[in-house]
Amino acid sequence: MNRRWRMLGERLSQVIPVIVLATIIVFGLLQLVPGDPAMTLAGEQATDERIAEIRHLYGFDKPFLVQYGTWLGHAAQGDLSRSLLSGERVVTLIGQSFPHTLTIVVLALLISLLVGVPLGILAAMRAHTRADTAISALSSVGVAIPNFWLAMILVTYFALGLGWLPATGATPLGESVVGSLRHAILPALALAAGGIAELTRQLRSALLEVLSSQYMRTLRAKGLSETAMICKHGLKNVGVNLLTVIGLLFNRLLGATVVVEAVFAIPGMGSLIVRAAINKDFPVVQGVVLSMVLVVVATNLLIDMLYSVLDPRVK
Amino acid sequence: MRGWLRRDLRAAVCLAYLAGLVLLAVLAPWIAPYSPTAQKGAEALADPSAAHWLGTDDLGRDVLSRLIFGAPASLYASFLAVSIATGIGVPFGLLAGLLGGWVDRIISRLIDTLLSFPGIVLAIGVTGALGVGLTHGMIACGLVFSPTLARLARAQTLVVKNELYVDAARCFGASTGRILLKHILPNAVQPLIVQLTLLLAAALLAEASLSFLGLGVQVPQPSWGAMLARAYTYIDIAPEQMYAPGFAILLTAMAFNGLGESLRDVLDPTMKRR
Amino acid sequence: MSVPLLQAEDVLVQFPAPGQAPIRAVDRVSFSVAANETFGVIGESGSGKSTLGRALVCLNRPDAGRILHDGADPFALTGRAFRAHRRNYQIIFQDPNAALNPRMTILDSVCEPLEILGEATAAARRDRARAMMDRVGLSGSYAGRYPHELSGGQKQRVNIARALTVRPKLMVCDEVVAALDVSIQAEVLNLLAELQGEFGLTFVFITHDLGVVSHVSDRIAVMYLGKIVELGPAARVRHAPLHPYTEALLSAEPSALPAAMRTRERIVLHGEIPSPADPPSGCRFRTRCRFAEPRCAVDAPAFREVQPGHFAACHFVDQLTLQGPAS
Ligand SMILES: Nc1ncnc2c1ncn2[C@@H]1O[C@H](COP(=O)(O)OP(=O)(O)OP(=O)(O)O)[C@@H](O)[C@H]1O
Ligand code: SF4
Ligand SMILES: [Mg+2]
Q: B104-108, C128-132, C250-254: which has the minimum mean pLDDT?
């Protein structure tokens, strides 16, 4: 137990510099704006007052470190400024959008696991057979397919064609669970294609590695069946590996939703940042990027903690 | 090389496809039957015919011609993003691996941090700052891809820098730059080439995504992603418009991935997929 | 007396070991090498010979003590001056293959030192490289080949030719023939002997083979677990050793005589060489020394001059009667 706490402490001490650097990068995005950022942000027809206001808002007249310090101080208190477009608080906008995004991502992750894990096991058990070849061909497609294109195809057939599911929009989970799921299922499916493919591949190769180990050869010699070996020993050894993959997958899906949300007109983080980026609504862009990276860092930390519970070597 | 292609059918097919695509991109103005921007309002959203093999879009533009003219944009975008990622990532990775110490610690932390951002989200943020457009979008993607390459280059350098031939070069008074260029890079390059090829696929998909979102290629310039964005707006009346550009993206990404995986199998036998 | 070409003063080289005290691969070693001398270093595997050799040519920086080249500390030089200085002190490694960049042709490898020094035109550099390859007995037909196409002996010749192109003053030969076929070993050793006269070289000759080292060396240093335990003229070390470890090494040498006719007993070293990460207290050799006494576990023996020019580190160096080599 003691050791586990120490590991956690160590991990935290690694996470903190990452968070600090991440905030610097997010804030530093503004430095990439060419020319006078205040003028660019204010837009072409802005009045001088508006430009001055923005300059003051960002402290463009002060040195970078001062600007950063002020911004960070506010951000740490949960104040990410206001949208230049709507004037609404960025935190409020994110609070409204994130649940939609998270619903899709979590659903996509679940689908990826439910489909990818059995497929990976099947491919490993039937390695180098026709089934394996078919699965691997499918996963090549899954990895390479543009998820927003897949989303469009799904909309065409299941929403517009068959009318089974709504084509656009979202319902908050709190309002109606069924409604929310009905809206989330197509986007999640579009996202999950890549996840399924990735999981299948990783699981297959990890399982094959374990199965070819000396230990497994001994078990096989003792007459254990292939299925029993995979279920009892293979998966246990692969479990930790799987956690890492899930962590990476979560990151990937969180990014990928941005585009899929556009197809389904879901008012999530993706729509928020895209609109903000096109309109140079920088407080919103920064807020979205920052909150997403924080979610990823937190998830990875959580996974590391699960790690120390699951991995017998850590005990 | 020839022996390898004969033995590895997948590599041969992918390479042939990509070579054909590059040729198509270069020769687009001579090959394409129509101008990609020529509008014939009367023939909007026409079905495939002898005159328009893949039909026409909502403005009566020839889909096949737009598809062909989209190839250079997509390839340019992929290569630009990957070149930028290489230009940033590889030198930083090499330096971190070679110098170690605090340089390595800072660069490694930076790599960890950048990898924590969901790629596309950061790319959108950077594009938003630089201003929308294909080149800006791909600079953003290059930045986002660079830590992957930096991490790989660093790991490779850590292996190669302890080789005796590096020590021998040091004894002759070779400078750090010379050691990096002449000894470490050539011996570390194989896994990097594999990764570059795989990144080309990722860049292609990223370009398509950004153009779809309106952050990449701007109208009326053709690109596969932009064609999909256009097709999306009348998905309810002409869904078949999305198939040509979609398949172009899918097949090209699969070709880059397939080539990368085949390269990995020959260049790096320890990583071979069983 | 003139300044020695090379001096080691109290040199310590250690490697960090995770979760333990650092490994002292070379532990406070001192000696000097005069111009045109052949200085032999002998010791078992892991005794720190290679690390010492690398420190002598500035590949490892001493954690304490100093290396002096021509009386001056090379590490005091910086940047370009340091790099320019290094040509004078070269090393030939034990593994001839690993010392060659697999992606460079033989000719490119041999040309590289001159290229680094910026000497002569590219064509002149190639001529000089080819001439040097010729001198070490490598036919010009190898110039365009890659290392994997050559045999071990040929590769070691390439390494020697490459080092000689910069006309070094001193050359560290780290077990240069250990990886080669026995039939090739003598050829390469003879070549080195010829080159020494021809190029006025000073050698630091590292080996674990006493037979080799005592024939070619003027003086010999015997290393055990990072320490030099005995140092003296080759003939004296070989025929009248002062340290029990040297005695054991000598007796382990293959003998020409059948066992029944030998005058001396064979001294077998018992047990493994202790880990350099955790060396024995006091005298490091005590765990395997046949003369060890309680004092040996407490005090580390001083390294002192027992006879003129002949040093040893043993508490009882004056009292022991040691055997000479098996003859
Ligand atoms: N780069 C390194 N990192 C950590 N430890 C090292 C390193 N190089 C050498 N050592 C350790 O230092 C000690 C001395 O090694 P060294 O190679 O100098 O011995 P050696 O006498 O040359 O042996 P051999 O006859 O096997 O070549 C060994 O215990 C070795 O494990
Ligand atoms: S000091 Fe003691 S242990 Fe060491 S060599 Fe001399 S007698 Fe042997
Ligand atoms: Mg050695």
A: C250-254
Numbered ranges of CATH 1.10.3720.10 in chain A: 94-310
3-state secondary structure of B227: helix
Query: Do the Cβ atoms of B209 and A148 come within 8 Å?
Result: yes
Mean pLDDT of A191-199: 90
Mutation for testing the B interface, residue in C87, C112, C174 having most B CBs under 10 Å = C112
Q: Of A186, A198, A160, which is closest to residue A103 (Cα–Cα)?
A: A186
- Could you list the residue range(s) of the whole structural domain that residue C115 is in? 99-167
Q: A94-310 is classed in which CATH architecture? A: Orthogonal Bundle (1.10)
Handedness of CA B29, B32, B33, B39 (dihedral sign): negative
pTM of the model: 0.82
Cα angle: C7, vertex C9, C10; to 5 degrees: 150
**Cα gap B214→A280, rounded to integer Å:** 14
CATH 1.10.3720.10 for domain B4-271, yes or no, is: yes
Tell me the ipTM for this assembly. 0.89
Residues C56-107 have pLDDT tens digits of 999 999 999 999 999 999 999 988 899 999 999 999 999 999 999 998 999 9
Confidence of residue B111 (pLDDT cuts 50, 70, 90): very high
**Is the N-terminal amide bond of B72 cis, ω within 30° of 0?**
no
Cα–Cα distance, A57 to A39 (Å, whole number): 13
Judged by phi (left if over 0) then psi (alpha if -120 to 50, else beta), residue C35 lies in: beta
Contact residues on chain B for C162, CB-CB shorter than 8 A: 168
Q: Report how far residue C253's alpha carbon sits from residue C211's, in angstroms, rounded to the nearest whole number.
A: 7
**Which ligand minimizes its atom distance to the CA of C93?**
3
Residues of C with Cβ-Cβ distance to B186 under 8 angstroms: 101, 103
In a domain, C128, yes or no: yes
Q: Compute the distance between CA of residue C185 and CA of residue C265 in angstroms, rounded to an integer.
A: 30
Helix (H) or strand (E) run with residue C66 in it: strand C64-69
